[in-house]
Design a protein that fits this description.
Oligomer: heterodimer
Distance between the termini of chain A: 61 Å
Number of strands of chain A: 7
Low-confidence stretches of chain B: 298-306
Shape of chain A: globular
Radius of gyration of chain A: 17 Å
Helix content of chain B: 40-55%
Strand content of chain B: 5-15%
Order of helices and strands of chain B: EEEHHHHHEEHHHHHHHHHHEEEHHHH
Helix content of chain A: 10-25%
Distance between the termini of chain B: 70 Å
Low-confidence stretches of chain A: none
Mean pLDDT of chain A: 90
Number of helices of chain A: 3
Number of strands of chain B: 8
């Protein structure tokens, strides 16, 4: 199944829930409605024609300063899926507003999402509803802010946290 | 017959007397001498058995992804060196390829072969280090020394090509820094001969060794289903019998033109991972040998018409207006730029002026070349891919190494994401060590081959 056929199948099975699809440099992308992402991910994994068994990557992009996207939702959570049986790839995106940055979790589908989602929470401050243990992964608990946000200054310092005396 | 003696045993004396089973909490790490990185495993022990484990990865505070957003595209290349300290070339090429995909350009044939060769040499270095260090953690120190000896020969090759051993910064968007040096193929064959001898010796020392087998077989097992669910790739996935390899599944560079096998295991334990890595090194050498035979352009053996002159003289003559015939003169470059003369430059770099710095002859000898050079290094100009995003996976030494780059149309990457191959195995590490012995924590961790730099954001 080639990229176009995958996108066509998604659009057919989720009418109105796939907001937009495009292909750029051979990568096929579908933008999914926030409320449907868990459903779409489950479908991608379980549908035999798609068969995406592997959640290759889960990350986010902060579009705060991106030209031409000043009005749109601030964040995008990006899923890279890969199928071992069919050897094809798909990228899914969910757009998230800053005020209510909550996406439903993928942990019931792929256990690896546990760490990926903790990392996205840590770096971007996007929360995942239903995550079993959403705490920081890389930074320490007392760290303020989320470093990969575009409005987090690259030179900002944080107080040193030493051992408790 | 000696008379029996009796003694009263006090509560708490010895293990578990009187008070039932007690669980002991042990922190392994951070910065344990046998841990290759900053990592902490909080293990709950029942006797010597790990009942429960919580893994925490540290933070190197290098801020790779944040720093990439701060400079032009080529500025990120030195940062990608530091992602993985034993196979930095693969990370270099992965990032450069992702930007090339974003730009929609295709690199030259010779460059594809050079990247293939250097990636495979890096892979051997990585596996040598991983297997050697894991064996050392089990007490086989000789193996470690042998492996490091072999790695040294390969690092000399890397040094010949790139001018450095670890911080190589060899890739460029649109090509590589410089061509292969003279006599490279011969040196490779010599180094591989040594490496093969070492591998043979290590096979004799370890593969059938009773102690080694007892410590490795059935330890750190992760089932095939769980490995896939945890999106683990590379030797750990292949050790469970799944022959997934990016080089075969989605060939890039020259991998579709060389023959190689994908070694797989059966049970997904530490012993299978060891065997897969050992077999992969042999396959990598096979790939390099074939690629060297097919290398287009042959050895760099260009007859220059004129005598090479040094860059300062070049500039002086240009200033005096004596530009006639200047562009035809070859230039003498410093040793760390060797292989970047005009003829070699054309073979290893794409002919796209928007991306690649012109050869030094043109920079010094013509105003167009100079302008081209400046347009690429000035702030706000440089490489400017169109708006959009691209994901490019390569087969790193530990599995799929993916780069996801988002461009906003300016000369700086808007977002660079590295999908490190050792992140998913660490998410699953607690599943590998739970139920095992505490002494097996370190060897299992060694088989994962965690690289701190790649986990860093």
């Amino acid at each position: 199944m080639d990229g176009q056929a995958i996108l066509a199948r998604l659009v057919e099975c989720f009418p109105g829930r796939i907001l937009e699809t495009h292909a750029f440099r051979g990568d096929h992308t579908a933008v999914v409605d926030l409320s449907a992402i868990a459903e779409v991910l489950r479908f991608c994994r379980d549908d035999p024609a798609l068969g995406f068994e592997v959640l290759m990557d889960l990350t986010a992009v902060d579009y705060l300063k991106y030209p031409g996207r000043e009005d749109g939702p601030r964040f995008e959570v990006v899923y890279h899926l890969y199928s071992l049986t069919h050897n094809h790839r798909l990228r899914l995106k969910v757009r998230v507003e800053e005020e209510d940055a909550v996406v439903s979790t993928a942990v019931p589908l792929w256990p690896v999402a546990d760490w990926f989602e903790r990392e996205v929470w840590d770096m971007f401050g996007i929360r995942f509803a239903g995550h079993p243990d959403l705490r920081r992964l890389l930074m320490y608990e007392e760290f303020q802010g989320h470093p990969l946000r575009k409005d987090y200054p690259v030179n900002k310092r944080q107080p040193l946290i030493g051992p408790k005396v | 017959m000696a008379e029996r003696t009796t003694r009263e045993i006090f509560l708490g004396e010895g293990s578990g007397t009187g008070s039932g089973s007690q669980h002991l909490y042990v922190n392994v790490g951070p910065q344990h001498p046998a841990m290759h990185g900053i990592i902490r495993i909080m293990a709950e022990l029942d006797g010597e058995t790990v009942v429960k484990a919580d893994v925490e990865i540290g933070y190197l505070h290098r801020a790779f992804e944040k720093e990439c957003e701060e400079g032009p595209y080529n500025n990120a290349i030195p940062y990608t060196d530091r992602l993985n300290y034993v196979s930095p070339l693969i990370n270099n090429f992965g990032y450069a390829s992702c930007v090339e995909k974003l730009l929609g350009i295709d690199i030259t044939e010779r460059c594809k072969y050079i990247r293939t060769i250097m990636s495979e040499i890096s892979r051997i270095c990585d596996h040598l280090t991983c297997v050697g260090a894991s064996a050392m953690e089990l007490g086989a120190f000789t193996v470690f020394l042998y492996m490091i000896k072999a790695r040294e020969f390969l690092w000399e090759l890397v040094e010949d090509v790139t001018g450095a051993r670890l911080t190589i910064s060899y890739a460029r968007v649109g090509g590589v820094k410089a061509d292969l040096p003279e006599g490279f193929a011969l040196k490779v064959r010599k180094a591989f001969k040594e490496t093969r001898q070492v591998l043979e010796e290590v096979h004799k020392l370890l593969t059938g060794n009773r102690i080694f087998i007892d410590r490795m077989v059935g330890v750190g097992v992760l089932s095939r289903e769980e490995t896939i669910a945890y999106s683990i790739t590379g030797p750990l996935l292949r050790a469970t019998g799944v022959a997934y390899d990016v080089r075969r599944a989605q060939p890039y560079y020259a991998y579709d033109r060389v023959e190689f096998e994908i070694p797989t295991g059966q049970s997904g334990d530490n012993y299978d991972r060891y065997l897969v890595r050992m077999a992969e090194m042999e396959q990598s050498m096979r790939i390099v040998e074939q690629a060297l035979d097919q290398l287009p352009g042959g050895p760099i053996n260009v007859d220059f018409a004129g005598k090479p002159i040094d860059p300062a003289l070049y500039v002086d003559r240009g200033k005096l207006g004596k530009t006639e015939g200047l562009l035809l003169l070859p230039i003498t470059l410093s040793p760390n730029l060797q292989g970047l003369e005009k003829p070699a430059h054309r073979e290893v770099n794409v002919a796209d002026k928007r991306v690649v710095l012109p050869p030094k002859e043109e920079t010094y000898g013509s105003i167009e070349g100079l302008m081209n050079h400046f347009m690429l290094v000035m702030d706000g100009y440089g490489i400017r891919p169109p708006q959009g995003d691209a994901y490019f996976p390569v087969e790193g030494a530990n599995g799929e190494l993916g780069f996801y780059v988002v461009s906003d149309g300016s000369d700086r990457p808007y977002r660079v994401r590295c999908r490190p191959p050792c992140f998913p195995p660490l998410a699953a590490l607690h599943r590998m060590i739970e139920g095992g012995m505490v002494a097996d924590v370190v060897p299992t961790f060694g088989s994962v081959n965690m690289i701190g730099g790649e986990l860093d954001r």
